[in-house]
């Protein structure tokens, strides 16, 4: 039961039973449940009941200590849910007034909309940026991540309505993986037209597989490189023209160089777009040496500290090569991601990219499985075992 009381400034929301967030206390420590019986919604805010959340690679990097994160912290930023309470004036990305019962996803970031970066069109790098699943829990925003029964969606977030027919396993990753891929492909297309291009995707996790489908649908010929045979097989199901084993010798028949040589012999263009989705420094080096003259490299997977790579400036200069970094995304990318999924999920097996689903209380088990490098996203369903 949800009860809303308005004082003319905000709206106090009392939910029975109380919403629960799973709070991470630091590396090596188990999550703890935090009950939040009351939420105060400011104008433009929402309370959303989580239908399904998926575990992103950055969640795994955080709990393994590969990247710094403030604690205590409610992880999770890929989720789909249903509105249970609405602050005054809250609207969706298309201007539709939000009401209780609507099914939604929302951006990973919360932006102020008025700083110099927001004014430059870089709201995803706002000076006052807040991020779901990344910011320390504090009074007034306890329900700040997707590993919870409910999330308090703050004003300054992009909220997108989701079709009832779209499976939750397809909709949940839109808030990170799919929207990020939309941003990466836009960055590539700024330099090289996708239609007719040969695109190399390095890494066939959810990002790489999604990029394969989206680039293929844009008219590109996509080659995917990954060490996991299950992921390579999945790439073929999502439209890849060819796949390569990154563990093989580069010029071997199954290595990336050999696969590209075979395609080139059959009339394919040289690769002018390389999307690095794995975060491997070796893959970044491969991208630098692989892209053709006038090509573009888009780096997406490098979101935790590394030892870096050796870069030859002459290669970039003489090759007229563009290197773009994509991190977070703009509102338009989430909007286009949801639109794409609503038209593509029945053509590609997106729902099969999410595998084991755990109840919320077993979040530590879910993260442990995700850390093994399983070829499927791991999910949390707050309604399992409730």
Automatic annotation (TrEMBL):
<dbReference type="GO" id="GO:0005737">
    <property type="term" value="C:cytoplasm"/>
</dbReference>
<keyword id="KW-0560">Oxidoreductase</keyword>
<dbReference type="Pfam" id="PF00107">
    <property type="entry name" value="ADH_zinc_N"/>
</dbReference>
<feature type="domain" description="Alcohol dehydrogenase-like N-terminal">
    <location>
        <begin position="43"/>
        <end position="159"/>
    </location>
</feature>
<comment type="similarity">
    <text>Belongs to the zinc-containing alcohol dehydrogenase family.</text>
</comment>
<dbReference type="GO" id="GO:0004022">
    <property type="term" value="F:alcohol dehydrogenase (NAD+) activity"/>
</dbReference>
<dbReference type="GO" id="GO:0008270">
    <property type="term" value="F:zinc ion binding"/>
</dbReference>
<keyword id="KW-0520">NAD</keyword>
<dbReference type="InterPro" id="IPR017743">
    <property type="entry name" value="ADH_phosphonate_catab-assoc"/>
</dbReference>
<keyword id="KW-0862">Zinc</keyword>
<feature type="domain" description="Alcohol dehydrogenase-like C-terminal">
    <location>
        <begin position="207"/>
        <end position="330"/>
    </location>
</feature>
<protein>
    <recommendedName>
        <fullName>alcohol dehydrogenase</fullName>
        <ecNumber>1.1.1.1</ecNumber>
    </recommendedName>
</protein>
<dbReference type="InterPro" id="IPR013149">
    <property type="entry name" value="ADH-like_C"/>
</dbReference>
<dbReference type="InterPro" id="IPR013154">
    <property type="entry name" value="ADH-like_N"/>
</dbReference>
<dbReference type="Pfam" id="PF08240">
    <property type="entry name" value="ADH_N"/>
</dbReference>
<dbReference type="InterPro" id="IPR036291">
    <property type="entry name" value="NAD(P)-bd_dom_sf"/>
</dbReference>
<dbReference type="InterPro" id="IPR011032">
    <property type="entry name" value="GroES-like_sf"/>
</dbReference>
<dbReference type="InterPro" id="IPR002328">
    <property type="entry name" value="ADH_Zn_CS"/>
</dbReference>
<keyword id="KW-0479">Metal-binding</keyword>
